[in-house]
Each structure stands twice: as C-alpha cells, then as structure tokens.
Amino acid sequence: MTSLDSLVDRIIGDDKHTPSSSSTLDVLRVLYERVLRIDPGRPDDPGRDRFLLSKGHGPAAYYAVLAAHGFIPEEWLDDVASATSRLGHHPDRIASGIEIASGSLGHGLGLGVGMALGLRGRSGSEPIVYVLLGDAELDEGSNHEAIAYAGATGLDRLVAVVIDNQSATHGWPGGIAARFAVNGWSTATVDGRDHEQLERALTRRESGRPHAVVAVVESKWSA
Amino acid sequence: MDQRSTFASTVSELLDAHPELAIVLADISVELFADDALRHPDRVINVGIREQLQVGVAGGLALTGRRPVIHTYAPFLVERAYEQIKLDLDHQQVGAILVGIGGSYDTAPQGRTHFSPADVALFDTLGEWTVRTPGHPAEVKRAIQEAVRADGRIYVRLEKRSNADPHEDYDVIRTGGSATVFAVGTSLDTVTEATRDLDVTLIYLNAPRPLDQVRLRSLTKTPEVVVVEPYLKGTSSAVFTEALRDAPRRFTFLGVGGRDLHLFGTPEDHDRAHGLDVAGTRRSIEAVLPAR
User: β-pairing, B179-184 with B153-157?
Assistant: First the structure.
C-alpha cells in the first residue's frame, strides 16, 4: 500500500503537511484497516457497515484512506476541488465509498441515527453505523438531539467517534464522554494516535446501548 | 374526518402494504399512530420534540432504502429544520414525504410562533420539490397515496379547514371572459363565493409544484390573471409569469401578507386581516375587472 502520508501530501502538498497534522488520520486508518466491514468491490452492498464523516472539514486524510483502500483512484487526489473533481474540500456522495455529503457541522449524527433505524430488522448481517465528529462540532445543538434520542432508545448499532483536539471554543467541562454517558451511551476515551487502543475501543460495543469513542489527539492550539 | 386524521388513516393503511414506508414524528399527532406503532415498531418512530433530528433521521432512513414520511406543525418542520431539508434530504439526493399541518394560521389563537405562511415559498428556494395543497380530505388521501408510490421529495400542506367538496387539480369551476382566476387548495370555496356573479373563469389548483406550464397556458385565455393562494402572497408569481409569457398579461396575486400582525383570534379573523375573506377577495378581483 502506498504510504498514507504520501497520499495526503498528494492532496495538500508536502510543504503544508506533517505526518501528525491530520487529527483524523489514525482513527480513519484503524477504522478502514481493522474495523469496518466494507468491500471497495461492492460499495453498495446493503449489508456493509456505514462510515459517516460528519464533520466534513479537512477531508484529505479521508480521501487518502479511500484511495489507499481502492474506493477511489489515487489520481483523483491530484485535483481535489477542481471543477471536474468528485472530491471537494467537503465530501459529497458523488464519489464511491462516501456515504454522506457533509461539511455543515452537526448533520452526520442525525443521519447516522436514521441509518441505524433503517438498517434495523433487515435480513442478513446487521451493519454498524460509525459517525466521526469533532469536539468543536459538538457545539451544534443538533448533535445533542441525536445523542439524547439514540441513548433513550438504546440504538446499539450506532458508534460515535469524537476526535478531541480541544478545539471547542468553550470546552466541555467534565469531559466529552460524560455528554454521551449521561444519556446512556457506553463510552471509551483513548489516545487517538494509539492504534491498539483505538481498535479495542471501536469494537467494544454493548448490547442495548449506543457507543461513543473519544479519541484524544494533540490540541489544535499546541502546534 | 378532517385533513390530518385522513392523512393518518391513509398512512396506517399504507404501512401494512409498503414494507419500506416509515413515519417519523416529533411528539405531534403521535396518538393517531399509536396502533401503528404497536404493529410496526421499527417503522413508526417518535424522536420527541426534536425537529432537526426528525429530518436528519428521515434522511438516514432514505439512505438505507426506506420511504420516510415526516410530520409535524409546518413552522417547526419547514422553518426550524430548513437546513436539514436542504442538506439531509436535497443534498444527499434522497426522497422523503413532508406533511405539515397548521396551514398559514390554522392555529390562530396560538399566534405567530405557530404560523407558517412562507412554507411553499421556502420549498421554491430548493430544487425539485413537489408540493401538494389539498383542499379536501379526499384530496389528502389521494396525495398521500401518490406520494408513497413516488420516490421524490414531496411536501403535502394540510390545513384544518377544507372546501365543501373535493376537486381535481385544474378543475374548471366556472368560465367567463374578463379574467382567469386560479384558486389554490383551501381558498377555493371563498373564491367561488367571491366571484359568484363575476364574468371570470375560475380554475382550481391543488398540485402547484411543479406547475404544469403547458396546461396552465392552454387554460388561460384572458390577459387578466388572478392567483389566490392560502399562503404567502406572491409565492407563485415567478412560476406563473414564467409559464404565461406567451401573451401580454396583467397579474394579481392574493395571499397572506408578510407582516407579523401580532394577531390572535380565529383563522377567519386572519382571512379578513389579509383580505382573503369573501369580501376582501371580491374587492381585489373586481378592482382589476372592467367597470360594469
């Protein structure tokens, strides 16, 4: 596999990029390499797990992972956001492997709740819906509608992954996991750069409860 | 049965026959679907008083192949969750059926917070929405049945009040030579009464989006055109003027004014305030007719 870093460089230019500059890269790697049951040869398989990049911002790492796993051609990374590209500075469903168009904060978790409800009771394997959010994205009230409802109804096919780079302007006193736990979610807070920890946290779901993984990475302000 | 209960009973029947159909509620009208919730617990969903989530959930359901119906009061459905409609439905390229109740001011005693005269205008800011404005419970039944069979994005605008009899879209109620008057949805009975002895053609509409331009042109034989809509005044001005560019025309659009009147009272009080009662409607139409 082509090194992910070099694929990311291909998108944003190696002068602007350091290996640690993308807060989501390690979580995405672990999801695509170890967790998600998806097949680039069958991107529309109804039984596939769903991954929703809710925050939509800074999708270079996402596109690099999609290319590395064969969902999109690597060449697409060379002209991101051009008029002929299917990859923008925010993702759109017009590219294979991208489940939702996103970019406006606070939409992915609601869509993910709907997907988890829609996949309930179908025959075949039971897909899991993973939604990746940012800690600042949680400022949007729409997330809290989804957190409360998913917890109250025990939507255990739903996993929220919050990348915490401490970028929320007013912070989350008591920690991000507490916002989910109070509504009945199981939670895990782990080092967002540690692949073993991430894999364990992402796969440790409990029956009858949605699951939240808080992946803590370097502060946005520390660089 | 009124429009809302007809909507609920129609969805109830369809839930049994259409395994992909789901209804997403936000605490409003939940009692009308209580039996359905027992029969179809996976497809009758009440998210609580959370309209952003309500529309988001519908988008997610549609992305997994379900056909979602979303229902609550129009202002909360269309205005509060407008960005969810734009992004979680339109931008995801999925279909849904939105069913709003309350019309423009059915909830007159509740005041402005519960009014939604701009609903159809807001759908005009988005792409490819079908809008149905039934004027009678029988029209509601048909609109819902057709919406469930279709796969696009459809807004069904329900009101408390109805016309005495059901009609078809583009029904010609009477013919005359001085003007062509279009009455949309629940405005029909008032407009019929207001034009009782006037020399006008009166045509009924209950499926205003997309507007059938060819049919509109073929039925409009006068330069003078009046459009009466039970929602924001002028909502249809762009589509009517575009459709009727075939000849010189003069247009008059009647509807609900945009100003917040800070008025309670009854829907009939609001009709009067907006000039949409029989007397006001007649005054506005007579003003554009040749003197008798």
Answer: unpaired
DSSP symbols for A95-138? STT------STT-HHHHHHHHHHHHTT-SSS---EEEEEETTGG
Within-domain flag for A83: yes
Tens digit of each residue's pLDDT (9 = 90 or more) over B130-171: 999 999 999 999 999 999 999 999 999 999 999 999 999 999
The first and second tokens of residue A164, run together, are 């915490």
Q: Tell me which residue of B276, B292, B135, B285 sits closest to B222, measured CA to CA.
A: B285
The answer to whether A37 and A129 are in contact (CB under 8 A) is no
The identity of residue B17, as a single letter, is A
Q: Are the beta carbons of B57 and A110 separated by less than 8 Å?
A: yes
* pLDDT given for residue A21 in this prediction: 56
* Cα torsion through A62, A66, A67, A72, rounded to 10: -120
Nearest-angstrom CA–CA distance, B182 and B203? 5
Task: CATH number for B172-286: choose from 3.40.190.170, 3.60.15.30, 3.40.50.920, 3.30.420.40.
Answer: 3.40.50.920
Average pLDDT of every residue of chain A: 93
Contact B59 A111 (CB under 8 A): yes
Which residue in chain B is spatially nearest to A102 when comparing CA positions? B87
Chain B positions touching A46 (Cβ under 8 A) are 64-65
Fold for domain B3-157? Rossmann fold (3.40.50)
Distance CA A103, CA A101 (A): 7
CB A186 within 8 A of CB A212: yes
Q: What is the domain-level CATH number for residue A156?
A: 3.40.50.970
* CA-to-CA dists, residue B214 to B175, B219, B224, angstroms: 19, 9, 18
> Residue B200, exposed/middle/buried by CB under 10 A (0-12, 13-18, 19+)?
buried
Give the A window 115-144 contacts with B, CB below 8 Å: 115-121, 141-142
> Count of domains in chain A?
1
* Residue A125: per-residue pLDDT: 77
Q: What is the mean pLDDT of residues B88-94?
A: 98
Q: What is the ipTM of this complex?
A: 0.96
The answer to whether position A121 is within a domain reads: yes
In chain A, what residues touch B50 (CB-CB under 8 Å)? 145, 148-149
Parallel, antiparallel or unpaired: strands A158-164 and A211-216: parallel
Query: For A196, what's the count of Cα atoms within 13 Å in the CB-facing half-sphere?
Result: 0
Nearest to A149 among B48, B63, B64 (CB): B48
Q: Which helix (H) or strand (E) holds B252?
A: strand B250-256
